[in-house]
Specification:
With 185 residues, the chain is mainly α. Helix content is 59%, strand content 3%.
């Protein structure tokens, strides 16, 4: 029986369907390209540094916020990853668009970061809202099950056997295909 891993979403690279607004200088484009390459090659500390530079110049760059959060998350800096993920959610709420996969990844990572940090009230509130808005997404239920599990969230890879998950197995069998965006600008 296959195990489903919540942290697999963290490894998944975010796809880009929308182009962020604003023009970048050649230097910013260079930093963005470098940040993407660093992220792709697993150099998360370097990607974090470059993403911080991008968001310092343009805090409204939603993809740079997400990549900053992902870079921190992949370094197990869960508490630090919350701020850029929350900023991405704020930007999305203000009208910047993410596709459904990007939206789900941001929410999944945010829920796990809050859960590992012990802020289970925030986890529950996020998941209640997510389930109302996206009732067909199985990881919302999976994450909710983790939150109510005695094991809760941990810094180790967290997984449940499909038979222990409170949703039908057919809903668990899914695959999110992600591709790397070509630009953070």
């Amino acid at each position: 029986m296959k195990l489903i891993s919540v942290t697999a979403i963290g490894i998944c690279v975010i796809s880009m369907a929308a182009i962020c607004s604003g023009q970048s200088s050649d230097r910013q484009d260079s930093v963005a390209d470098r940040a993407l390459q660093e992220y792709k090659s697993g150099q998360y500390e370097a990607a974090e540094r470059d993403c911080r530079e991008i968001v310092k110049q343009n805090p409204s760059n939603i993809l740079a916020q997400i990549y900053l959060g992902q870079s921190l998350y992949m370094q197990k800096k869960y508490a630090e990853s919350v701020a850029p993920f929350e900023k991405a959610r704020e930007l999305e709420a203000s009208g910047m668009k993410l596709n459904s996969t990007q939206h789900r990844i941001v929410l999944d990572q945010l829920v796990i970061a809050y859960g590992i940090g012990g802020n289970l009230k925030k986890v529950h509130a996020l998941l209640d809202d997510a389930i109302r808005q996206d009732p067909d997404y199985p990881l919302n239920y999976y994450n909710l099950a983790l939150q109510t599990s005695p094991r809760r969230f941990s810094t180790r890879t967290t997984s449940l056997k499909a038979s222990r998950c409170p949703i039908p197995a057919r809903m668990i069998r899914f695959k999110i295909m992600c591709t790397m965006p070509t630009s953070l600008s």
